[in-house]
Amino acid sequence: MPQDRVRSPIPELTELQLKCLEDFWNRKPVKQIAADLGISEAWVHKNLMTIRRQLNVGSSADAAMIVFGSKTGSIKNYYYRETDLSDVPELTDQVLAHSNAIFGAAASDRALINNLGVGRTLGAIFAVAIGVIAGLVLMLQSAIGIHALMEALGY
User: Fold this and answer.
1) How far apart are the C-alpha atoms of 50 and 39, rounded to whole Å?
2) H or E element: which one contains 40?
């Protein structure tokens, strides 16, 4: 197959699109990219969106990685930064028992929200439920009474 018929995996981008993407890759804010290129911020966003669509990626950072690779100091290192955190060790029974003791002590130091106890709490819930039901019955009876009054008055 002739070399000129082989299609590049990266579509042809305009010079403006490449400049917008390169400045984005170099961590310039959109406002600065627009000022440097003498275009509006909306036009910068439009160019970046067109590039994302052409490359079929979800972010401009992914598009820049495809076009420019992983240069040192690039946006890849800025957005996809590795952390210094060590791997999380597997929890053993001893570690779990220790953490339960710590959290149990911390929880017992706080004042209780409910000082009533289980029986009184359930009683209070039951009393509130009965009150709600009684209120609904009274509203229904009021509505029936108003309806009857309106009929008696001929409305």
Assistant:
1) 16
2) none
Q: What is the pLDDT of residues 13-46, one digit of tens each?
A: 899 999 999 999 888 999 999 999 999 999 999 9
For 73-122, how does the pLDDT look when each residue is reduced to its tens digit (9 = 90+)?
445 455 555 555 555 555 566 655 665 555 555 555 556 677 778 888 89
Per the domain annotation, does 96 fall within a domain? no
Structural domain tally of the chain? Answer: 2
What 3-state class would DSSP assign to 149?
helix
We report the CATH number of the domain holding residue 64 as 1.10.10.10
State the Cα–Cα distance between residues 55 and 65, nearest whole angstrom. Answer: 11
Tell me which residue range forms the domain holding 63. Answer: 8-79
Whether the predicted model's global pTM rises above the 0.85 cut:
no
Identify whether 30 is part of a domain: yes
CA atoms within 13 A on the CB side of 45: 4
Distance from the Cα of residue 34 to its chain's centroid: 28
Residue 134 lies in a domain: yes
SS3 for 29? coil
Q: Is 71 helix (H, G, I), strand (E, B) or coil?
A: coil
CA distance 65 to 28: 15
